[in-house]
Specification:
By secondary structure, this protein is an alpha+beta fold. The chain has a domain of 75 residues: Arc Repressor Mutant, subunit A (Orthogonal Bundle). 39% of the residues lie in helices and 22% in strands. It contains nine helices and ten strands. The strands form three sheets. Strands 4-3-5-6-7 form a five-stranded antiparallel sheet. Strands 9-8-10 form a three-stranded antiparallel sheet. A hairpin with a 6-residue loop joins strand 1 and strand 2. Helix 3 runs antiparallel to helix 4 and helix 6 packs across helix 9. The longest helix is centred in the N-terminal third of the chain and has 17 residues.
């Protein structure tokens, strides 16, 4: 699976590598941001970010720029507010994830949607649409066991070219009700990539996102 993701320009360890390349205080700020998004469905406020930045001895605006340049978070046009953080989209998308006993969030793509369960270690219900036909695709995870409808559903994983992953990969990584639909979509848009069975897509999501919140200091009330 890791080799397949690498071949599409979406290496499984890319996000973790980018996160781990940050200074430790900035890594902690990033983890807290993701946890806040997972808990409330909303990014932390500027006031909350400022509190964390003071605690972590960070220049907040520089920290936000660094995380955005690393494709870890999304910022508003002024660059002062976080609007989302991969896998959480900065606005509504076709990929809706209901975190059981938690919020409903938008994911950037199909793999992001499936990866949220592994990242948060939570049960989720995912609802999306086949972009070729607008037919619904649904997937649910309970205690790590996944089911989906239709049973023939797949995920296309690929890229429209070179550039930022959120611009070249995320828009084309979608759920489809069948392999035929996915291949037709790939052909129509001249995309590089491949079709994954849902079970393999779940594995891909866990590979990409499963370790992003492993550090317990991600808790907003944690101390170094």
């Amino acid at each position: 699976m890791s080799a397949l993701l690498e071949a599409t320009g979406l290496p499984a360890d890319k996000l973790l590598t980018q996160r781990n390349s940050l200074p430790e205080p900035l890594q902690l700020l990033h983890r807290r941001t993701l946890l806040a998004l997972g808990q409330s469905g909303k990014p932390p406020t500027r006031a909350q970010l400022e509190t964390w930045a003071i605690e972590l001895h960070l220049d907040l605006d520089a920290a936000l720029r660094h995380m955005a340049e690393s494709e870890l978070v999304f910022l508003d046009p002024a660059g002062r507010e976080i609007t989302g953080g991969v896998p959480f989209a900065p606005g509504p998308t076709a990929h809706q994830v209901r975190i059981v006993h938690g919020p409903t969030v938008s994911a950037n793509c199909a793999i992001d949607a499936l990866g949220i369960a592994a990242m948060l270690d939570r049960d989720v219900d995912v609802e999306s649409l086949d972009p070729l036909t607008d037919e619904p695709v649904a997937a649910s995870s309970r205690a790590g066991c996944w089911t989906w409808q239709p049973i023939e559903a797949v995920v296309f994983v690929g890229s429209s070219g070179q550039g930022r992953l959120t611009e070249t990969c995320c828009p084309v990584i979608n759920f489809f009700t069948s392999s035929d639909h996915a291949l037709a979509y790939q052909s129509a848009h001249a995309l590089d990539g491949f079709v994954l069975a849902l079970s393999d897509a779940v594995e891909a999501g866990a590979l990409v996102f499963g370790d992003l919140l492993r550090n317990q200091s991600a808790r907003p009330d944690a101390r170094q």
